[in-house]
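Task card 7
Instruction: Convert sequence to structure tokens.
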Amino acid sequence: MATFANEVLVLPKPKGPFRAFAVCHFTAAHSELKSRSFHMQCKPLADAGVAVLYASPAINAGRQRGMRFVRLPKLRGKLRTFLASPSLLRILLSLKAEVYHFQDPELLPLAFAMKVFFRKRIVFDCYEDFPSMAYTMRGVPAMLRPAVAKATRGVLGLAARCFDGVMTADALTLRGFGGGGKSKKLTFYNFPNPEFFPAPESAAKDFDIVYRGGLSERAGTWQLLDAIRWLAVRGKPVRALLIGYCDSPEIEAALRERIRLLGLSEAVELQGRIGHGEMAKALGRARIGVSPLQDIPKFRVNIPVKVFEYWACGLPVVATDLAPIRPFFKNVDGGLLCPPGDAKALAQSIAWLLEHPQSAARMGQKGRTAIETRFTHRDEVRKLLRFYSRIVTAH
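Output:
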């Protein structure tokens, strides 16, 4: 059993005969323990009494908190993954799990084979809206991207008809699957696990603003730099901490050069990826969390998890006004929304919060309260347990 906010999380007992079951999360692309699959799902599942096997290239061995780790080779690229499928298949089948759960779209062919030929229970966690991501895929000509998006949506429709369960991280992505197939459907929101985001403590604020996530033009990083420059020119300099990754060394070089050209080298600190256990402490070093995502197909569907993490740390948030996040701001009063693509409006929102610290503090507290009472990780885990139980008992 696991305790969340003084509450005991109990494994639900479905109707009819029931026995304990084993869930295997598997990935061949990630050498680090992913926050969604490992920290938000596997750990609480194991605490709740589910036998969890975590098969990945991550360097872990043996058992930890009731989980068994299985080492898989790290594979890069769809072709290498496809060629390695027979060896991966042998390893996964040897684990004899009742449910096999995966996130990597490149493992879809392997998962289809496990379902069709070996009749395994398969859950696909479509944590991103992959069809909309096709519209910004590097290396794919713009004229071909609509066709790639359509083909991707077709494959996901097949998954909904073939697999036992389909999960997403937001309701708009799940809507893309429609009512297709007999697969069980679940939206598992990426609300912060309180084990890693406890009640914030008073700490020195080394930065005025913090951003965490992908660093790119589509994520609004360039827009954010323009906003910081706009403030500096008007005598309102701010210090910014950018935590995350670039898609390539070339993009990182371009980002550093842009920071230099804007004269922001002393104002902006870049920090690469950090462990999930370090995230709350890092975010807590700032006064304001920012989410300057651009108005592109992906962000018209996917919810930025960073907003919930900022709120969990008691930070007021400045975010671009996009459909997925808008309902979560409603009645929370946890920050300010501004038009996407408008660096001036972004800068003015940041400035207003810095100039009104008491209002900003109230917004941060309201965000934290919403995470504790409305957008709770414990409720998501309960949903996931019921989801698995329905799948296991449906056969």
